[in-house]
Batch of 4 targets.
Target 1
Amino acid sequence: VIVHDVNELTEKLFPIVEAMQKHFSAGSGTYYSDSIFFLSVAMHRIMPKEITQIIQVDLDLKYKSNIRDLFDEFDNFAEGAVIGIAREMQPVYRHTFWQYRRENPQTKVGEPPPDGLPGFNSGVLLLNLEAMRQSKLYNQLLEPAMVQKLTEKYHFKGHLGDQDFFTMVGMEHPELFHVLDCTWNRQLCTWWRDHGYSDVFDQYFQCEGEVKIYHGNCNTPIPED
């Protein structure tokens, strides 16, 4: 077990992610402490080179299967993919991309699966650190000018940290991501069903198959065994 000092990590992270914080943070500005919500984005820059793969998970999870099985998903990454991540299971990005969607009525951006691009949820993340280090494209996308360019293109203003960054990049470069099955991150939050999207909510929320990890996001109770 290696314990990392959160202040030291934040110190390393801040210069890398400072530019994206204003686009993907809930606060009104760029807060130093916000940097930790972007840890996954730059994990490959701050972890020792000998660490080649990491699974990063939220705390509000309940495991129904062996986490070792999740490591096998790294073997399913297509060439060029650097991160494994499940789709967002609420229409949050249908909402966030409203202006882009209005200007591009035929877009798949924000549309539900299986054919749409609903965005990602970062509660369960497979980070292929070696692939992230090697990917010229991924590292270019971390540059402030590229972040600015994409946020302008998609009229994007989020508040969910790394998840927003991955979602926006995924709209432009889906080849960077290995999409995990929803059963590896079975999100339970239903907030958007009661906030204007009841008519389409179930298209995002449905998940077939035996759940491997429950995610009690937005403080949603997780089913008892």
Target 2
Amino acid sequence: FQYLKRFDQGYNLDKFCYKAHSVEGNPAECLQRFLLHCGISDPSWSELRNFTWFLNVQLRDCEASVFCNPDFVQDTLQGF
């Protein structure tokens, strides 16, 4: 949710890192944002769950990767 919210607001996500147990927004806003981004016009709960699970895994892996760390790659992969 935090990544999608910042993405929609036009923030640069390169430096953003999720902090465990941090809470933003409310459940209705979270659901609305997931519905907006999941890519299915009328998703079931299982489709939303799969979307959020997959997104979470990808973002967690991205945060853990040295190749996605802007301090490591600096500007060599800008826009990649």
Target 3
Amino acid sequence: MADDAKELLTKVGFETSLRYAIQLITAAHIVCQRRKGTEVEIEDIGRVYSMFVDVKRSTQFLMEYQEQYMFNEVLADPEPMQTTS
């Protein structure tokens, strides 16, 4: 693994989670193999970082686009439950 790729993974691990950074290592290695590379480069890390989101970015995405999801219509106009006595 290239030194700058290690530094980027360290930054990603610090800002997100160690688990996420470790999972990126495996995915970046596969991307490296697909391009017939010999070591994981910073571009490989960047590619998998854009493909797989961490919890924080996933939550941001859901909050940003929540009005476009089907469940939002159900929660926006709840019908009161009618009870029969």
Target 4
Amino acid sequence: FQYLKRFDRGYNLDTFCYKAHSVEGNPAECLQQLLLHCGIADPSWSELRNFTWFLNVQLRDCEASVFCNPDFVQDTLRGF
């Protein structure tokens, strides 16, 4: 949710890193973001769960990768 919210507002996601147990927004705002970005017009709860699970795995792996660390790559992979 935090990544999607910042993406919609045009923030630079390269410098954002999720902090465990940090809370932003409310459940209604979170659900609205998920519905907006999941890519299915009328998703079931199962489809939303799969979307959030997949997105969380991808973002966790991205944050853990040295190749996605802006301090390491500097500006050599801008836009990657």
